[in-house]
Amino acid sequence: MNTYALILIILTASTIQAATGFGFAIMSIPFLLLLFDPRDAIQLNIILALIISLMMIYKIRHTVNVRTLKRLILGSLLGTLPGLLIFTMDVRPLKVFISVLLMVSTCLLATKVRIKESDRKELLVGVCSGFLTTSIGMPGPPLMIYYAGTNLDKATIRSTTVAYFVFINLISILLQLFLYGSTPIVWEATLISIPFMLLGIILGQFVFVRLNQQHLQKIIYLLLLFTSIYLLLTTMIVP
Question: For residue 198, which of 14, 3, 40 has the smallest C-alpha distance?
């Protein structure tokens, strides 16, 4: 394990997560996979994402949209178990599908296509997010697609997303540990990462207060595009 690389990855990912409410898995998973076995990388990402969400949620709890949060959680319960089945299978076809979906969605959102908020859409977002969390450790893309097309303010987006991540990451890691166990290196890397996650939260909060709604949307578009390209390239390159 390259400790310096791990620190840089976690510091960058936690700063983005604290500033936007998204991005920890998107920025960490591609690089953690270079340092760890895929299953270890996914479990480490979920554990760290849970910890950073727990660190953030108390301070921002007052702006959580509780109704949206309940629908996301309900939907995620329907997606987690199918995702667990994919966790031990060949995920390449899933990664290709997701990468194409993200590219198309990003293009549509960048051209100002709007998404009307609704209960059914939030349930569907929860299902997709729950599925992606337990399968490849990335709960964020469905929420980013949905929120980038709505007119919700940045504080509500960040707090509701973080509150949801507390739930979905906790459920996902408990299920994975119960069914598949873990390795010592996952917990060693977790202990090394925690201080730098704290530093990332401080830096991310500094960025958040200076971030307007338009800049947030641009960051979301870039994260979506990065994710789609990464998923497609790794599927094509890795045998």
Answer: 14
